[in-house]
Structures are given as C-alpha cells and as structure tokens.
Design brief:
Distance between the termini: 45 Å
Strand order of the largest sheet: 2-3-5-6
Number of helices: 2
InterPro entries: GTP-CH-I_C/QueF, NADPH_dep_7-cyano-7-deazaG_red, QueF, QueF_type1
Oligomer: single chain
Function: Catalyzes the NADPH-dependent reduction of 7-cyano-7-deazaguanine (preQ0) to 7-aminomethyl-7-deazaguanine (preQ1).
Protein name: NADPH-dependent 7-cyano-7-deazaguanine reductase
CATH class of one domain: Alpha Beta
Organism: Brevundimonas abyssalis TAR-001
GO molecular function: preQ1 synthase activity
C-alpha cells in the first residue's frame, strides 16, 4: 500500500482496475490543512457489488464523510478501489463496513463515517451505517442527503 505522494501509482497513469478489493491499491497524500477541523465527502451513487449467494448484482449509493488528520485519500485510487467491488461477492453490511474500516486504517482520520444506501434486494432495501466513533466537537456534519427508499410511492 503506497503511503506518500512520491510513490503514487495511479494518479496520472493508465490504470485498468483490480479484480478484487483485496488487490486494489488505496493511496494517500499529505493533508495541507492537517491543523484544521473540516469534513471531506465522497459520494458514489453507482456503487456495485455481487450477492455472494446468487451472484446477482447489487447497487448502492455510498456517502463517505471524514475529518482528515495528516492524510487525504487520493481520489483516483478511491474510485479504483470502489470499482473493484463490481465482481466481488459480499453482503451489503460487509461491503459497507469493510470500505469504512479500510479507509480508517489507511488515513487515521480524526473521524470517519460511511452510509451505504442499498437498493432493494428481494423487495427490501438495506441501509448500512458505520463510523469510527463520536464526531469531534465543532465538526459540521451535513445530512448525507440520501432519502430512504420509497419505491413508487
């Protein structure tokens, strides 16, 4: 796993993707405002993975919020990492929590949360939420902006 800007392997390069989340390379860069409390948000409205039982595709709208410490996630590597789930079989809960934990391990943020808003499977939508702990005092936490599933009504 690359951990500094001089060793970035994906930014500005031709990256074809990864066969699995375990093979995907997540990279980080130094935070130029590490002394400032702020929130960074990544939204992936077209996240896909596979059901581990039926191999049918599952779709989610992911929202990742974090208060950076010394590191920022390099966004192209994040996109490639999320894309690596397209052929990965795992339940909604596993995908959502694994992404949050991997980012927390890489970045050591002041705080991180992930919301996985999954589209219905078998008629039931599953929403999964995980965070590293209590948000720091004074951190502005906007609503994640994703309404719960309402079907056609």
């Amino acid at each position: 796993m690359t951990t500094n800007t001089s060793g970035l392997t994906q930014l500005g390069g031709d990256v074809r993707g990864f066969d699995s989340p375990e093979q995907a390379v997540l990279e980080r860069v130094p935070n130029p405002h590490a002394d400032t409390l702020y929130l960074a948000r990544f939204t992936a409205p077209e996240f896909t993975s596979l059901c581990p039982v039926t191999a049918q595709p599952d779709f989610a709208h992911l929202v990742i919020d974090y208060a950076p410490g010394d590191w920022l996630v390099e966004s192209k590597s994040l996109k490639m990492y999320l894309t690596s789930f397209r052929n990965h079989g795992a339940f909604h809960e596993d995908c959502t929590v694994a992404i949050g934990k991997r980012l927390a391990d890489l970045l050591a943020p002041k705080w991180l949360r992930i919301g996985g808003y999954w589209y219905p499977r078998g008629g039931i939508p599953i929403d999964v939420f995980w965070q590293t702990g209590t948000a720091p005092e004074g951190l502005w936490l906007p609503d994640q902006g994703v309404p719960t599933y309402r079907g056609r009504g």
